[in-house]
Design goal:
This protein has eight helices and eleven strands. By secondary structure, it is an alpha/beta fold. The N and C termini lie far apart (38 Å).
Length: 236
Amino acid sequence: MNAKYRILIVEDDDDISMIEQAYLEASGFETFILSDGDKVLPLLHVENFDLIILDIMLPGKNGYEICKEIRDKLNIPILMVTARTESVDKIRGLGLGADDYIVKPFDPAELVARVNANIRQYSRLTEANQNELDEKGDEIRIGNIRVLLHGWKVYKGEEEIRFPNREFELLKFMAENPNIVFSKEQLFEKIWGYDYAGDSATVMVHINRIREKIEDDRKTPKILETVWGAGYRLNR
């Protein structure tokens, strides 16, 4: 990683934001700090960043509101930071479109590792969609769902459905490997790019978000199926 990657730190605790900035800049990133949630979206209209580190508890708009607004407009990795340890808070952030989360207090070196992993995965995905020549063709069809591998787009019928990068990569991976059961651990390591940490919320929430978009009835999914005790399978 080098300084061409720009990181937006959204954090109202000056001590924490300065530590994050110091470790990230020592690792070659450029950083910009905001402490007011109301200023995030206006800044993103005029500045480009490669990843956002987003605290939940902020003055003005909170991290949940900001995450949802970003996801409605931009496809950029979001690493959510929270002081809360309850699973419901993690699930809520992931459910709104965060790619990953880290809980305070954290080792700054772990934060840098998470940033690196998320940017690497995002870069690999975008480069693959721009450059790869897939022998199976540019499009995978699953019923009335079309996954455009190079165009990084998903259609249900004639309607395009917005997929953030992690959701798209997860759907793409399973669509390219149909009728195979993958455990949460396997999917986490494949899509997030680092060792599974024992928390199933990340994979589970992303699977549920994909189901909301592609299934006709999320309660009885026919495309993205849960195989109880084993994992998930995409049926084609």
